[in-house]
Specification:
Number of helices: 2
Structural class: alpha+beta
Strand order of the largest sheet: 1-2-3-4
Order of helices and strands: HEEEEH
Shape: rod-shaped
Number of strands: 4
Oligomer: single chain
């Protein structure tokens, strides 16, 4: 019984870390994956580096965006979920 009471604070600390750090990170990763899979041709997006454009072509892991300077090919993961969502609200 004494050993259990010694490990209780560590167990409690792990539970707190899980709910405040690990779980939200997993939830965010899932949302980003859903966002990437929901992209379609014609969507206006902003990349994580700040480039604005419109999706011209889609592939499995890459995307071609049309910008004012021309067409650029990049990975789907380079598209910012937050900034693109704020652009869609405008």
């Amino acid at each position: 019984m004494e050993q259990l009471s010694q490990f209780a604070p560590f167990l409690l600390m792990f539970v707190v870390i899980y709910f405040f750090m690990i779980r939200p990170q997993q939830k965010r990763a899932k949302q980003e994956k859903e966002f990437e899979s929901a992209l379609k041709v014609g969507d206006k997006i902003i990349t994580k580096s700040g480039l604005h454009g419109k999706i011209a072509e889609l592939a499995d892991t890459s995307v071609v965006i049309e910008t004012m300077a021309g067409k650029l090919k990049m990975e789907r993961s380079a598209i910012s979920m937050e900034m693109s969502a704020s652009l869609a609200k405008k």
